[in-house]
Design goal:
Mean pLDDT: 92
Bound molecules: zinc ion
Order of helices and strands: HEEEEHEHHEHEEEEEHEHHHH
Helix content: 25-40%
Strand order of the largest sheet: 1-2-3-4-5-6-7
Number of domains: 1
Structural class: alpha/beta
Shape: globular
CATH superfamily: Ribonuclease Z/Hydroxyacylglutathione hydrolase-like
Strand content: 15-25%
Number of strands: 12
Number of helices: 10
């Protein structure tokens, strides 16, 4: 039986979320919100404070995935969407609960959008996260699914498959597959410009989740990461190789009795640091997980 959806004390959770999300783009220093069409009425929306999002626009209205960091960024995003269509915004899907993906939920809820996400998203927004107050009712999901679950939406001629992934970045992390557009919105299970962070999941969860998507996706699929540019299959395969390299490097280091400091000094991810940036926090988490698993 599924018990409490919030797995940690709020204090520990707040600390984890804070540490996991230190590299968020704040609204003040973010580039402007911009939409670019990926096909079949699906727009990739970059910029603003917080994570990448998307909007599916068509005759039935608008569906948005993730709501950016705050109300100002969400309102800027809504203004961009309103410039593309007079249609009503009817659905918002949250890939997980972190504020850079849900901070603008209230703007969407106030427009009457039905919010969808993993049950943890509901529970955590209802309790309040990072020591903050509970989110208003209109900012919380009203349709949820549990571990290993998901749902299918038929909207604007598109079929969307929302699927919970193994705990990787967050325990709740879910993806959205736009079947006709052949686009997977990966939330923070995929990152295009930084090493992944873990706030409720594990490196093995990332590997299992990415493998699941790669097994299903065809050669021309595209992948919207939580941050960074839209990737093609080669980009997701490179990311998967990086995850595997980190895992095997940490296992080898521990086998050789290397300390964390020696492991970091050996620069196991040197080949991918140009793409993903400073690996220290990621590799520290990977090393500590491998050590605990011994
Ligand atoms: Zn996150």
């Amino acid at each position: 039986m599924q018990t409490k959806a919030v797995p940690f004390s709020s204090k520990i959770l707040a600390a984890l979320v804070l540490s996991a999300c230190a590299s968020w783009t704040a609204a003040a220093e973010a580039p402007p919100v911009a939409a670019s069409e990926l096909g079949n009425g699906l727009y990739f929306i970059s910029g603003g404070g917080g994570a990448n999002s998307s909007a599916l626009i068509g005759d039935e209205g608008v569906l948005v995935v993730d709501s950016k960091l705050d109300i100002a960024s969400a309102d800027a995003e809504i203004a961009v969407i309103k410039g593309l269509t007079p249609g009503n915004i009817r659905f918002l899907i949250n890939t997980h609960e972190h504020p850079d993906h849900t901070g603008g939920n209230l703007s969407y809820g106030n427009l009457g959008a039905v919010i969808i996400g993993h049950e943890d998203v509901y529970q955590i927004l209802t309790a309040g996260q990072r020591g903050g107050p509970p989110e208003p009712l209109q900012a919380r999901p009203s349709i949820t699914f549990g571990n290993g679950g998901g749902l299918t939406l038929h909207f604007n001629g598109e079929t969307l498959e929302v699927k919970h992934m193994p705990p990787a970045h967050a325990a709740s992390n879910s993806i959205v597959h736009f079947v006709t557009a052949n686009v997977y919105q990966m939330g923070d299970v995929f990152s295009g410009d930084r090493y992944p962070t873990m706030a409720g999941g594990t490196l093995q969860g990332f590997i299992d989740g990415v493998d699941q998507v790669l097994a299903e996706a065809n050669a021309s699929a595209r992948f919207i990461p939580g941050n960074g540019p839209v990737g093609d299959r080669a980009a997701l395969e490179s990311y998967r190789a990086m995850l595997g390299n980190a895992q095997s490097s940490a296992a080898q280091a521990i086998k050789e009795g290397k300390s964390l400091e020696d492991f970091l000094a050996s620069k196991p991810t040197a080949a991918t640091d140009a793409t993903y940036g400073d690996p220290a926090r990621f590799l520290t988490a990977v090393y500590n997980q491998a050590k605990e698993a011994q």
